[in-house]
Amino acid sequence: MGSQSGDQTNWGKNGRKSHLFLIDTFEHDLLKHLAVEDQVHDLYAEDQFSLKQIALRMDVSRDYVRKALFRKGIPVIRGRRETDLTGQIPYGWKRREGKLVPYRIEQLVIERMKRARVQGMSLHEIARRLNSSGTPTKAGGRWHAKSISQILSRNSDL
Hints:
mainly alpha, two-stranded antiparallel sheet, 6 helices
């Protein structure tokens, strides 16, 4: 078995096609998949994100998140965890060891909001700029003037 004049197939010993390209592609996809699973684990175990929040932020299904956590050996808790704070964790904060602590990255975004407001920028313009810069909300959605107003009123020292 050889190759014909126009055939670019790479034939190995015993006349079989080489599968190196397929293996390389598979390994590349597997490495990307493992990196995503590590990120799912960090968001769930360390940052205490819900399955829904992780799915929205990573643009995957909740079922995918659940299976990724299962493969990592992390039990998915239905309902509330014993140490859960009631309600959503406010923007600018995260839970660590059952307590709310400032979340530095989000605190920097709040400072940007405050500076923009002091400079006279409208809430709608702040939301537009945060969305266009790709700054994530707590749940991974879009920014709105109302949510910025609530964040600023909670963190007001204006």
